[in-house]
Amino acid sequence: MKTLSLRHFGIWAAAALLLVLGYGQASGYMSIRVATSPVPSAVGQAVRWNLGAARPNVANRRILYEIGDAGCADSALFTGGINEFQAIQDSFNNWRRIRESDLDFEFAGSTTNAVTSASDNRNVLRFVGSNISSGVFAVTITTFDTTTGEILDADMELNDRDFTWDTLGQSRTTGTPGRAYIESVVTHEIGHFVGLDHPANSQSTLYFASSPGLFSQASLERDDIAPIIQSYPHPSLSDPALGSVSGVVTDAMAAGQFGVGVVLVNLATGKNVVGHVTEKPPAGSLGSYLIQGVPPGNYIAFALPIQSSQLGSYYASAFTSFYPVVRGVAFNTVGAPTLVKVAPGQAFTGANLSLPAAGGNPFEPNNTSAQATTLASGEAAVAQITPAADVDFFKFTATAGQTCVIRVLSDAFGFALNPTLTLLDTNGTTVLASPISSHPAYLASANDRDGEAFDASGPDYDAEIVFTLPAAGTYFFAVASRAGLTAGQYLVTLELRGADTSADNIATKISSSAAGVPADGTSTFTINIDPRNQFDVSLAAPNTYTVDLVDRSGSPVILQTLSSQSTPFNFTVTALASPGTKTYGCRVNGVDMAATVQVSHFGTLSASNSRVILSETSVVANGYDFCTVQVQLRDSANNLFADSAAAVVISTTLGTLDNGSATGASVAGVYDPALGLWAATLKAGTAAGLGNISATANAQPLSAQTLTFLAAATGTGSGGGGSSNDTEDDGGGGCTAGGGAAWLAILALLVAALAARRVSRAS
To answer: For the chain, how big is the Rg over CA atoms in Å?
Structure first.
């Protein structure tokens, strides 16, 4: 067996008060991959733990970890109400709480033993005062079998020399500039601990850069969650709404290319949601990609070069000699993207992209309103600000009272540009919305979509204008660099509210007033259909539509029709006379919509078919960890027994149940009419052991579930970092095998570049 240790350079920063973001491009939804192997078929395998393995650092399908007993030198200064051991354990809990995954962890004790090897079958996290590169928050060293990709060992070192550490605790809403928050840094590093690499998404927890004071990386985003669900799936819990997207990326010669980042941008929100990179044999056919765990929606597929220097050596040969491109919009042109339309639970295939050659500055000259590039509603373009003093003008035609939504996205992909937007009146000079705080027409989002760095959501340095236009005519907007200090590429989109009145088959929604009704032939419920356009905007009056309610339980059958009407579209439906479950869908103006809703027409309660559902397999006995307990009732034919009148009581032998109005060892379950389930929150106490979670429905007992209450992390916490006997060295950091002087040179360059960009943020 051949093993390799990779050193993951965890979120670096120089001393800063604002977010440090990547200089240049970064990579899409990433995994650490096997780069070389004596087994050719193993090359390209994602590096992952085998939770079923019999290993010293894996037990009961949990990854075991130890924490250095010395703790953190700054512990006396903590303001979060918890210590460093609890904060580290809470960080592991962030990953454990992914509902559709069975990834789990267990604290195996504090340790004073020296860490001398990256392959000692001990997963150790510790604060260190030496053997770590300057300006690096943390380093994670992952050792794996190169013949299988199985992770064998992972260690984490937190820099106790260069940063003042603090804890978030349970109630913090604002970070303190200059403080490095343990939960934010460790949550990021655990991503490497379980096999993930840095994505091209500045909102992702695994994004490679941060700064003291920020703590948004203490929570997970879709780009972090998707690969975990794929690699560590839960045996019984899943989200049936999630879909997938696949395609092939080719160059100008129609040849497939490896290592191209493909990200999905939600058309309605302008958010970079999730992405991946293209494959190469033997991991996949050249240029192909597959993105799993995609929420339903309309997406812009965007191909961009990855920055392989931030990644493992597997990506060193990634193809990067091309200009970023939107699917369906050619280089140096404006057009409507060919949308990736992900229906609930469905696979979208054939999302192919063709890459233009690198180089060029599209649409130039467009530095004045007289040279503005025309953009229409629903269209997009990829352009760039270069040099930093460059300004790009665009124009569009609108009607009086119409609302425009203009977005410029660069930060979302880790590009270097910090963009701003200025909206101009029809004369091309009068400012209607300005990114300059001293201007009378100042609009904060024209500068930063979210400029508050030190809160749970973190900053978003892209630009957006939502503005209602006073009169009909042709308006202008200018894209520039904030303070003229950064340059780079960007994606610009335009939406004019009211211009698109077509019901979109993905965005249109359907809902029921009840998850279930008794199968008595007389009870009624209401199904609402909400026609929406591709931007997810509800199509209200004066728009009129013909809407059909369709039974999709088998061959489609039209049940009712509302002709040439405006919203709301409410259909009254009578219950079946015998038990069964129906799937309802709709058509708008004769076009099938993708959304459906299931309604149970239930019979007699069956305790044997009903069940207790736990959102977790374990909780930590720390006095505040929690698990959601749900009770799903079924009838004798296994239809959902969604009877709000049912008396459901939930009980536990460990911890305390809370239903929002009462607490105790037993509480009434609270009915959720949308899901047809009863629920309560189980809060852990401080006693470890096995808890028995049971329920009754109409006094009938249901099968109980067992929940493990794990011991809370503890340690002496004397501070002072790692032992002087520790000989495991971070090798200079970085997602690269071997580390060494060459990586240190790259590190110094990157920190300098990041610092330069931060200055522009502060202006």
So the answer is: 27
Q: If you write DSSP's letter for every residue of 156-179 in order, what string do you get?
A: EEEETTT-EEE--TTT--S--TTE
Nearest one of 587, 498, 593, 586 to 542, comparing CA atoms: 498
CA dihedral 307, 309, 312, 313 (to 10 degrees): 110
C-beta separation of 119 from 5 below 8 A: yes
360 inside domain: no
Tell whether 173 and 40 lie within a shared domain. Answer: yes
Q: pLDDT tier at 745 (50, 70, 90 boundaries)?
A: very low
Answer whether the bond into residue 568 is a cis peptide, omega within 30°. yes
Residue 585 lies in a domain: yes
Question: Do 194 and 209 reside in the same domain of the chain?
Answer: yes
Q: How many domains does the chain have?
A: 5
The answer to whether the CB of 276 falls within 8 A of the CB of 230 is no
The residue type found at 725 is N
Same domain membership, residue 191 and residue 73: yes
Same domain, 597 and 610: no
Of residues 343, 347, 714, 388, the one with CA closest to residue 504: 343
Residue range(s) defining the domain that contains residue 341: 243-354
Tell me the C-alpha distance between 550 and 584, whole Å: 6
- Hey, what amino acid is at 159? N
**Domain assignment of residue 361, yes or no:** no
In the chain, what is the greatest distance between 2 CA atoms, to the nearest angstrom?
Answer: 80
In the listed set 711, 727, 748, which residue is the last one of a domain according to the structure? 711
> pLDDT digits over 506-533, tens only?
999 999 999 999 999 999 999 999 999 9
Cβ burial of 253 (10 Å; 0-12, 13-18, 19+) is exposed
Q: Are residues 609 and 597 in the same domain?
A: no
Residue 277 lies in a domain: yes
Find the helix or strand (DSSP H, E) in which 225 lies. Answer: helix 222-231
| CA–CA gap between residue 241 and residue 238 (Å, rounded) | 9
Other beta carbons within 10 Å of 746:
16
CATH number of the domain enclosing 293: 2.60.40.1120
pLDDT at 717: 87
* Residues 555, 659 within the same domain: no
Give the Cβ contact number of residue 239 at 10 Å: 13
Same domain, 415 and 373: yes
In whole angstroms, what is the distance from residue 270 CA to residue 79 CA?
A: 36
CA distance 652 to 201: 41
**373 and 321 in a common domain:** no
Q: How confident is the model at residue 748 (pLDDT cuts 50, 70, 90)?
A: very low
Which tokens is 551 given? 């039974």
- The CA distances from residue 239 to 226, 355, 645, 681, in Å, are 11, 33, 27, 20
Report the alpha-carbon distance of residue 479 to residue 386 in Å, rounded: 11
Strands (E), 449-503: 463-468, 473-481, 488-496
Instruction: Determine the average pLDDT of the residues in 634-645.
Output: 98
- Percentage of the chain modeled with pLDDT above 90: 81
Provide mean pLDDT across the span 419-447. Answer: 97
- 245 contact partners, CB below 8 Å, separation of at least 6: 264, 290, 291, 294, 299, 301, 340, 342, 347, 348, 351
CATH number at residue 166: 3.40.390.10
Checking if the pLDDT of 256 tops 90, the result is yes
Q: Specify the CATH number for the domain of residue 591.
A: 2.60.40.10
User: How far from the centroid of its chain's Cα atoms is residue 595's Cα?
Assistant: 23
Domain boundary among 354, 384, 400: 354
Residue 515 Ramachandran class (φ > 0 left, ψ -120 to 50 alpha, else beta): alpha
CA–CA dist 544, 317 (Å, integer): 54
Can you give the three-state secondary structure of 24-89, one letter per residue? CCCCCCCECECCCCCCHHHCCCECECCCCCCECCEECCEEEEEEECCCCCCHHHCCCCCCHHHHHH
